[in-house]
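Contributing: when you submit paired examples, paste them exactly as shown. First protein:
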Amino acid sequence: MEKALINTDFHFDGQKSLYHGKVRDVYNIDDRLLVMVATDRISAFDVVLPKGIPFKGQVLNQIASKFLDATSDICPNWKIASPDPMVTVGHRCESFPVEMIVRAYLTGSSWRDYKAGARQICGVPIPEGMREHQRFPHPIVTPTTKAEQGEHDANISKEEIISRGLVSEEDYAMLEKYALQLFERGSQMAAKQGLILVDTKYEFGKKDGKIYLIDEIHTPDSSRYFYAEGYQERFDKGLPQRQLSKEFVREWLMEHGFQGGEGQQVPEMTDEFVKSVSDRYIELYERITGEKFVRDESDDISERIENNVKNMLARL
């Protein structure tokens, strides 16, 4: 098996704190910069799975980096540079306590809720008579709260976000506007590669009174893609869609009796399964970017990252 980077514990000049997220390790440098390392950890149902996925961090970081550059005319973003295949360095912003989910199709968790009888998501009404994987008349924004470690994200309506003072009405209007414009750009870029951007999430923060797009964007961890070819035929026949996303990992876990519930055990991740997940991530990279994925096969991934980041920080 190829190597996978599961954990990091670097000590950079000016480092004030280190946060281990589900997938990313985030280093605060002088309350001014963030060094975000995309590890090879993988999570599903808000649980970090026991094995890492080789090249997953590189895939996520490089896709996010590409899309941050490709959307900077729509919305300012936090990225300053990507000094390593698995790292982005950028502005430290105060993040908003909500995530902006944009959905163009009734699928995944929204379909599961709909099938169970829900006819609105986050206060947004959903028409009767819809089928799985059906396109909405227009993309909808369905925000969630940002979960603390070990907790689940929770759906929340625009009205509740504003009434609870989580985001001001003025700022929320900008977040919604940016999210829909970013989704439109992502959809256009996906279409050029024969893909459909089905749904995705965006996170935003503020620095010096200005709203920035932060974290990842349009990656397989934050987004779901269908293959455009065959979509309509499969939909008409009620067949599952061919998709490039993390949903296949969730489906594999559910087939093996795991949905993150109390007392449930994560099924054994065989080397064959881990390789298949890695291959799917690489396939998505090549499909969405139109570029060949170049594997960085360093003998010591941690040492490479540490050297590249230290050299970058010395210049900032």
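Second protein:
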Amino acid sequence: MKLKTRLAVLVCKASGALLRRLGRGGTNLPGKLALKIDKDILGALAQGVKVTVVTGTNGKTTTSRMIEQAFADAGLRYFSNKSGANLLTGIIAVFAQHCTLSGRCPYTHALIECDEAAFRRTSAYLPVECLVVNNIFRDQLDRYGEITHTLGAIREGISHVPDATLCLNADCSLTASLADDVPNKVVWFGVDVPIYRQAAHELSDAPYCIHCKTEYQYDYVTYGHLGGFRCPGCGYHRPTPAVAVTRVVAAGADASDIELDICGRSFAVHVALPGGYNIYNAAAAAAAAHVVGLDDRTTVDALGQFECGFGRAEQFTLGKAQARMMLVKNPAGFNQVINLIAHDPSPCQLAFLLNDRFADGTDISWIWDVDFEALAAQQARFTRIFVSGVRADDMALRLKYAGFATDRLEVVRAYPALLEAIGADDTPAFLMPTYTAMFDLRAEIGKHTDVKAFYE
């Protein structure tokens, strides 16, 4: 190992340890310091490690946690970037943390969540064995640009890993196109049936054929632009998935029960999180675990007992109330949370927290494409409706135009006061923060309850 690589590892480990002692996590800065010392450090540290990468717009963290539970149950020697630091510097930091001072990695496997834009660069250094692409949706226009830019970034990343097996979402017409003209083996996953009896009204991010621009026809829609798509113009259509949800038995407020076919073997699967998007995440995880070589029964059992990632349907006790935190960051994801709430008739409290910092996306116009009208139609069952965050007034305005009574919208800017108000009675609550609001709110919750830090 080169001297500069060893020095980079030492600096990365020391700075990361210091930052964690200070309660800062140490997930990106150590990687930045290491990268300045050795620009090729990630390639050196990843040598000999079998790497599974999860990327795409929605579901990266949860899918990774599902796969991680299967890895753990199977007894693999692995590590992961559990903190969610999914840019190049964060991935460097987690590799350095799990290597010796000489730069040798004692683990056989690594499970890496990777930002879809960052995958273009990160993939050049990683010996990827399995690549999962969950989906491609419109997200943070100020950062990612048009949806085709995201597709192009992932496509370029795939060109760096010709030996990787691709686990691709058969129901996403954009993701499915990644299989065009690549040498990689492809394992398709998908959902063969509708998930909801009545889904939220959603704008499709991909209404027209990526090849000939003819409008798609659908045999069924699961959510967004996902489902049984086919192009009447050129014949491009949904591939038949090898890992497929063949039946949705129950989709409740706390979990889902499905029938899952994994390469010809059928399993009854309990998914330990609610929501149609988590049904897709479960199918993606099952496909990846199968590619890595895990026993399918081990994977199925893992889907029923894994721990959710921070902010992804996490549950907290706030005073008298039980609260569930649901990260929201784009129209497709937010509409899935709305579907979940709309299909649960029980009384509850709602809290919308909108920030516009860099990690959230500084352009908040996307909230006007979210189907808040579906919740406004049920507002009589919501005991209290809170609005908070840096852009609380913008969210309140959007809710007003969705049909919420303005005298019912409570703008509470201070998080301590917000949590106190939610915990004042025992009505369950749904907390819906954007990314940085989630971190801030979680930090405030951590002052009063025993929750793990985001990097643990």
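If you have annotations for the second protein, write them as plain sentences, like these:
The mean pLDDT is 91.
Residues 3-21 form the longest helix (19 residues).
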